[in-house]
């Protein structure tokens, strides 16, 4: 998963080139606007980006969206931190971002592709995601101090 890929649609581009990512924008959105990661530290965001397959969504050269996949490249993957900035929503860019992630050549033929969402079930169901059996899925949260 070292070669960068790009997809184009009009003036929009999706790229897996990490050097293009606006880390400040990604951190700001995840820490201040995303319900799933309020207050996340910048170093945590940077580490997560270093260890994931990342997809930046750009309007010309300005980043307007993001998604990342944590995977072993063979059996499992987890889609995380998907967003499009509010002022760019309603143009089908989120759907295109998800379609692009799922079409990436390094993410084909996996046994399981997971994600977590509180409010976008219908979006992901379009791409074959379905709720999992809660009796099988488990999680471990950090201890509260």
Summarize the structure.
By secondary structure, the chain is an alpha+beta fold. It has helices spanning 23-32, 42-50, 93-103, 121-125, and strands spanning 6-9, 12-15, 53-59, 62-71, 76-84, 112-115.
Q: Top keywords for this entry?
A:
single chain; 145 residues; alpha+beta; Aminopeptidase; six-stranded mixed β-sheet; 26% strand; globular
Secondary-structure topology with pairs:
Layout: E1 6-9, E2 12-15, H1 23-32, H2 42-50, E3 53-59, E4 62-71, E5 76-84, H3 93-103, E6 112-115, H4 121-125
Parallel strand pairs: 5-6
Antiparallel strand pairs: 1-2, 2-3, 3-4, 4-5
Question: How would you describe this protein?
Answer:
There is one protein chain. The mean pLDDT is 94. This protein is α+β, with helices and mostly antiparallel strands. The longest helix is centred in the C-terminal third of the chain and has 11 residues, at 93-103. It has a six-stranded mixed β-sheet, sandwiched between helices. The chain has a single domain (6-125), classed as Gcn5-related N-acetyltransferase (GNAT) (Aminopeptidase). The relative contact order is 0.15. The chain is built from four helices and six strands.
**SSE string, helix = H, strand = E?**
EEHHEEEHEH
CATH fold call: Aminopeptidase
Q: Total number of helical segments?
A: 4
User: Roughly what fraction of the amino acids lie in strands?
Assistant: 25-35%
